[in-house]
């Protein structure tokens, strides 16, 4: 029944009436300002409907082409294959961020090739496999990569990673081989080398980036051609940034440094935020005397979604002694943002442009992740609380009864550690 609260676990997928947009929450407070003839009407979903954001992902596909498919269907009102600034309802620079060829419209050409996230995820998987084969070499290569911006990996490391994954020596790599090699590699920690975040399947991203013959498998020469192209493009971007900085006039005032997040023992920054229902507010300092677990995240962050079961399990163990607050943040991977990473199980969501739109997403996210049993709060569009806690894209804190930070996870998506979080909640619950 529409509006019904979900039991845990839920018997059927359900979307609350507040999450009434088909795909995007960006215009939830005003409806579809720019409707496409191919975009199904926005309406409440009934009890048999699936999640509309996830359904959109399954409809539009994977990768950069999925981003264009979604935006075209959503905003190309006249069906001419171009989305103008007026059709998009955006102003620059938001519109210009996606208009990569600067021709005044979004077209298929703006979304050709892999997304940047596809390149980063693919590189990370291969680096991690290579690191396990030669940890000492990985340390030296990691230092060189860090000096070059942290996004460049060597041909030698990639060749090692491919050889380690290609166990049948067929000269091609499929998803089962990559996943098995990654699991073996991540079973052995290597200092200074990052593991793949939970909830992210790297092989589809590698296919999008490097599978030139569309075979569904990867050859070493395909990966090397992709790596070389990516390194060259990043070098060109760095040169362009340097030239722009050199030609820009001097700033009138220095940019203020980003505030450091509160550390263990620090007083947790106070805040007052509205609930996902929008009917009440919650002030953190009002909860003094009770330990609080602060869970920061958004629906479009795959590692956050993957962590939800064990966060919920911690709540179930200590619900009578620890207060859990879920604070909904800016989208980690909005389809119209700087780092889209659409896939078959990744909800296609635009960055909300109103509090009500963000609230609608928070509502759906809380229920889909089974967080509806504890309180969900929504950060304002100025992201003030997220900044105070250095929370994006995902972060966990535990605050003791005196209002001081008892635990702070590492920054997401790599800093989420179930054992650490569980231990911290156990300590404050005693």
Which secondary structure elements does this structure contain, and how are they paired or packed?
Elements: H1 52-60, H2 63-75, E1 83-84, H3 85-88, H4 94-98, E2 105-106, H5 116-133, H6 135-147, H7 155-165, E3 172-173, H8 175-186, H9 202-210, E4 218-219, H10 220-247, E5 272-275, E6 281-283, E7 292-297, H11 302-318, E8 323-328, H12 355-368, E9 375-378, H13 384-388, E10 395-399, E11 405-408, H14 418-429
Parallel strand pairs: 7-8, 8-9
Antiparallel strand pairs: 1-2, 3-4, 5-6, 5-9, 7-10, 10-11
Helix pairs in contact: 5-6, 5-7, 5-8, 5-9, 7-10, 11-14
Task: Give a short summary of the structure.
The protein has helices at 52-60, 63-75, 85-88, 94-98, 116-133, 135-147, 155-165, 175-186, 202-210, 220-247, 302-318, 355-368, 384-388, 418-429, and strands spanning 83-84, 105-106, 172-173, 218-219, 272-275, 281-283, 292-297, 323-328, 375-378, 395-399, 405-408. It has 430 residues and is α+β, with helices and mostly antiparallel strands. It is globular, with a radius of gyration of 23 Å.
Structure description:
The protein is an alpha+beta fold and 430 residues long. It has three domains: 61-111, no CATH class; 116-237, Recoverin, domain 1, CATH 1.10.238; 272-429, Glutaredoxin (3-Layer(aba) Sandwich). It is built from 14 helices and eleven strands. The chain has a seven-stranded mixed beta sheet with strand order 6-5-9-8-7-10-11, with helices on one face. Strand 8, helix 12 (355-368) and strand 9 (375-378) form a beta-alpha-beta unit. Helix 5 (116-133) packs across helix 7 (155-165), helix 7 (155-165) runs antiparallel to helix 10 (220-247) and helix 11 (302-318) packs parallel to helix 14 (418-429). The longest helix is centred in the middle third of the chain and has 28 residues, at 220-247. It is globular and about 60 Å long.
């Amino acid at each position: 029944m529409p509006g019904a609260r979900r039991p845990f676990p839920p018997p059927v997928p359900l979307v609350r009436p507040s999450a009434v947009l088909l795909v995007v929450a960006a215009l939830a407070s005003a409806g579809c300002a720019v409707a496409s003839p191919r975009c199904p009407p926005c309406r409440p979903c009934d009890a048999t409907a699936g999640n509309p954001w996830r359904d959109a992902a399954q409809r539009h596909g994977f990768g950069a082409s999925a981003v264009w498919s979604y935006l075209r269907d959503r905003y190309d009102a006249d069906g001419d294959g171009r989305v103008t600034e007026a059709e998009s309802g955006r102003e620059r620079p938001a519109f210009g961020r996606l208009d990569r060829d600067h021709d005044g419209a979004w077209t298929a050409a703006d979304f050709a090739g892999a997304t940047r996230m596809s390149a980063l995820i693919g590189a990370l998987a291969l680096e991690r496999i290579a690191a396990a084969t030669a940890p000492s070499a990985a340390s030296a290569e990691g230092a060189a990569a860090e000096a070059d911006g942290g996004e460049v990996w060597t041909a030698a490391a990639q060749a090692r990673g491919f050889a380690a994954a290609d166990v049948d020596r067929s000269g091609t790599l499929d998803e089962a081989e990559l996943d098995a090699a990654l699991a073996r590699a991540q079973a052995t920690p290597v200092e200074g080398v990052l593991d793949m975040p939970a909830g992210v399947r790297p092989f589809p991203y590698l296919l999008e980036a490097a599978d030139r013959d569309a075979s569904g498998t990867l050859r070493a020469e395909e990966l090397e051609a992709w790596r070389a192209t990516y390194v060259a493009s990043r070098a060109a971007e760095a040169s362009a940034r340097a030239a722009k900085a050199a030609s820009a006039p001097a700033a009138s005032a220095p940019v203020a440094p980003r505030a450091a997040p509160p550390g263990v023992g620090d007083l947790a920054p106070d805040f007052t935020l509205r609930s996902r229902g929008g009917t009440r507010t919650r002030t953190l300092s009002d909860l003094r005397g009770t330990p609080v677990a602060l869970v920061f995240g958004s629906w479009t962050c795959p590692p956050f979604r993957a962590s939800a079961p064990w966060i919920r399990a911690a709540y179930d163990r200590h619900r009578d002694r620890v207060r859990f607050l879920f604070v909904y943040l800016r989208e980690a991977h909005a389809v119209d943002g700087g780092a889209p990473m659409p896939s078959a199980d990744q909800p296609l969501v635009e960055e909300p442009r109103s509090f009500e739109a963000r609230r609608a997403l928070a509502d759906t996210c809380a229920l889909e992740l089974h967080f509806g049993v504890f309180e969900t709060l929504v950060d304002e569009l100025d992201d003030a609380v997220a900044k105070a806690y250095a929370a994006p894209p995902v972060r966990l804190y535990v605050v003791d009864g005196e209002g001081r930070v008892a635990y702070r996870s590492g920054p997401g998506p790599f800093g989420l550690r179930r054992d650490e979080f569980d231990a911290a909640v156990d300590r404050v619950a005693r």
